[in-house]
Amino acid sequence: MNTTAKQGKVWLVTGASKGMGLNLTELLLSSGHRVIATSRNAAALEAGITENKKNLYAIALDISSDEDVKAAIDKAIAHFGQIDVVVNNAGYSLVGSLEEMTDAEFRSTMDVNLFGTVNIIRHVLPHLRQQGSGHIINISSNAGYIGFANASSYNAAKFAMVGLTEALAQEVSRFGIKTTVVAPGQFRTEFMNSIQYVQHRIADYGVDEAEKMWSAASGTQPGDPDKLVSILLKISEMEEPPLHLLLGPDNYDLVLQKRKEEAAEFEQWRSFTLSTNFD
Ligand SMILES: NC(=O)c1ccc[n+]([C@@H]2O[C@H](COP(=O)([O-])OP(=O)(O)OC[C@H]3O[C@@H](n4cnc5c(N)ncnc54)[C@H](OP(=O)(O)O)[C@@H]3O)[C@@H](O)[C@H]2O)c1
Fold first, then answer.
1. Which of 32, 58, 110, 148 is the most buried (most CB within 10 A)?
2. Any idea where the domains of the chain sit in the sequence?
3. Is the CB of 187 under 6 A from ligand 1?
4. How far is the C-alpha of 114 from the C-alpha of 188, rounded, in Å?
5. Overall fold of domain 4-92+104-190+223-267
6. Is the pTM of this model over 0.85?
7. Are strands 34-39 and 94-95 parallel, antiparallel or unpaired?
């Protein structure tokens, strides 16, 4: 039985113990929605929530395990009977040059930011497709549109989230499933305190200085996460939500500038580009 109209929607939010995931979970519970919230530390997550706890189903989950994700989605469906909106929010950045990153460090960034998202989508889709509705919201980043020095693994994961969301939209819109990829600029969450740094450093790349810079910048980000999550709630109510959504004036300026420079570069090398077909 679909109980959406009476009790609000059922949301699934990953990485909900802090930052945007926690703000979103609190907003949803106070707005009468039901939330399946995942965290590696479900006890900390539950302890942080005070309002409407009966509408919260907290699940301890490492999203990088495909098996565990499947089990968690099965439990969530058994608990609430449906999932309407999925927010793939869990993520972190690894700071360091590509040369310094070990295979394990690079892969771990991809495991959490990218494959965790893929695992969640793969296991919710059978339910959304069957119910003929749903909205998948993937949290990418300004780093999903612009390459930044010392962020190659994070860039690789966040760029991939943009591409996968575009492909997914084309695959699932016919089933009534909506898709949005959100790219925040800098928002004041625990993000900068959660940054991982490469363990083996090469002085030439200046990661020690980068670490000091990011640690000092935490708490000064211009973006208000409460405003961000209220926009997520708004787009979930739209008949036709955006496929791509940039959030934050800092991000808007950066991405538009990047797009201009990219178009100019494509133009500059146009003669090569157009010269490659068989005569
Ligand atoms: N804040 C920004 O400026 C900003 C900008 C662009 C994009 N973003 C993106 O926004 C999303 C939310 O970030 P936030 O700003 O809210 O950061 P946050 O305060 O650090 O929260 C991040 C959440 O992601 C999960 N997470 C972090 N590292 C993880 C790991 N190694 N394995 C599994 N889960 C992990 C955590 O889940 P647990 O509950 O398991 O600890 C945590 O709740 C992320 O995808 C981030 O990349 C943030």
1. 58
2. 4-92+104-190+223-267
3. yes
4. 22
5. Rossmann fold (3.40.50)
6. yes
7. unpaired
C-beta separation of 147 from 105 below 8 A: no
Is 90 exceeded by the pLDDT of residue 7? no
154 as an active site residue: the answer is: yes
User: What percent of the residues of the chain are helix, what percent strand, and what percent coil, each to the nearest 5?
Assistant: 55, 15, 30
Name residue, tokens 């942080």.
Answer: 48
Task: Single out the catalytic residue among 17, 97, 153, 154.
Answer: 154
pLDDT (0 to 100) of residue 6: 59
Please compute the mean of the pLDDT values over residues 72-99 and round it to a whole number: 98
Q: Is 141 considered catalytic here? A: no
Is 152 touching ligand 1 by the criterion CB < 6 Å?
no
Q: What is the pLDDT of residue 4?
A: 52
Contact 180, 235 (CB under 8 A): yes
DSSP secondary structure string for all residues of 198-210: -SS--GGG-HHHH
Set 152, 158, 197, 236: catalytic member: 158
Q: What are phi and psi of 186, to 5 degrees?
A: -90, 120
